[in-house]
Amino acid sequence: MPRTGRRLAALTLAAVALLAAACGKEGSPPVKGPRPESLPAYTVDTGFRLPDSPTWRAAKSRGHLTVGVKEDQPYLGEKDPATGVYSGFDIEIAKMMSASLGFAPGTLAYRTIASANRETALQNGQIDYYVGTYTINDLRKKQVGFAGPYYIAGQSLLVRKDEDDIHGPQDLAGKRVCSVAGSTPLRRLRKDYPKAVAVAYDTYSICVDNLLSYQVAAVTTDDTILMGFAAKAPDELKLAGRPFSEEPYGIGVPRGDTALRLALDDAIEAHERNGDWKKAYDATLGRSGVPAPKPPAVDRYGTGRSA
Ligand code: GLU
């Protein structure tokens, strides 16, 4: 993201937090990130080896993992502008995975990568894997691999609290609707709702900024992301209508590194079984108001042993 974009994104989050603090009535969600004490610590599998994975071998000899994430998605992938600390459900998934791959917490580095740059970042080795509301689909599978899914979201709409006309994507004709370049919701908006006026930015926080300042009538992306923004500014923002797609979240890995992909599939299942997944969800994404669902079955595509 360009510097001005990053500054704007930080400003938006700060503005949303301030708004929420100023307008927060009793019972409204807390504006802070997850409480560290409610987060599980993940057991590091110190004896873990994955010699068949070029990505794992390179990370091991380098001494740390670099994971691509988001930094402006409340309760999912959020960077505290003051401390630089990342938090959220996707960050917890990234930590669980690194522990299973044998990397201690101090050897995990995050790198913010926008939706449009995920495939390139994985292809050119900037990151070892990516955890950031990344929908698994066949088009992307031509460029990267996916472990998971570890959660299923759905495309939805975020509008201002004073909006009465938008109840679903059918009401978007002639309206300016913001989404993010390189995302599945932008693609679906353009393809299935061509009468809407699509506006694209690099990040959802810039879209929310545009919504709060009446530059656009709605923001569209996954309900998880939109609920986070709405939970932080409940007097300003609300979701409209029902989700209208399925967005299975995967962990992006370099294409062809099947050993890494399948090791992460095993790790996801292990952390779902031992309760880490639910604890992490409750401490993060669960705080935007939706109780933990049953996690979806992982899809070991191309191996003949899917779920
Ligand atoms: N899950 C959707 C996608 O992967 C939207 C969220 C995002 O842009 O990260 O494109």
Automatic annotation (TrEMBL):
Show the GO cellular component annotation of the record. extracellular region; outer membrane-bounded periplasmic space
Keyword Transport among UniProt keywords: yes
Could you tell me which PROSITE patterns the record lists for this protein?
Answer: PROKAR_LIPOPROTEIN
Concerning Pfam families, the annotation shows: SBP_bac_3 (PF00497)
Q: Which residues cross the membrane?
A: none
Task: Please list where the region (Disordered) is annotated.
Answer: 25-44, 288-307
> Which residue intervals define the domain Solute-binding protein family 3/N-terminal in the entry?
64-288
Q: Name any Gene Ontology BP term.
A: amino acid transport
| InterPro entries referenced in this protein's UniProt entry, alphabetically | Bact_solute-bind_prot3, Solute-binding_3/MltF_N
Residues of the signal peptide: 1-22
Q: Which keywords does this chain's UniProt record carry?
A: Signal, Transport
Q: Which ranges form a coiled coil?
A: none
Similarity section: Belongs to the bacterial solute-binding protein 3 family.
The protein, known as? ABC transporter substrate-binding protein
> What organism is listed for this UniProt entry?
Streptomyces caatingaensis
